[in-house]
Amino acid sequence: MDILSSRIILRPADYPRTLEFYRDGLELAIAREYPGGTVFFAGQSLVEVAAHGGSGRASAFDGALWLQVRDASDAAAELAQKGIAIDRPPVQEPWGLIEMWVKDPDGVPIVLVEIPPDHPLRRDSRRSAD
Asked: pTM above the 0.85 mark?
């Protein structure tokens, strides 16, 4: 099986409020819009907020959206200015990433991650030609 692309589809209880959160709060760029939905760019993935197909109630979501940012402290300041509650401020985790946690209007956890310059995720793991 070849996976050609992927996206996360959210079916919020309050579509306009959730659309505003991702568009204006997190400032995700719009990839495309269609009647009843908006698809956002989220780095190498897509997040779709759909007004169709859901129950009209917030649903349990045991996962989290992982969004990489350049600077977690700057992101925290921007979100605070917009009145978005920060559940956990930026903290460097034992695994080396700097993580901050927020929730969307339906309570979907979002971890905003800064990868420090010396973290293994930034290292070139290819073998040298030597």
From this structure: no
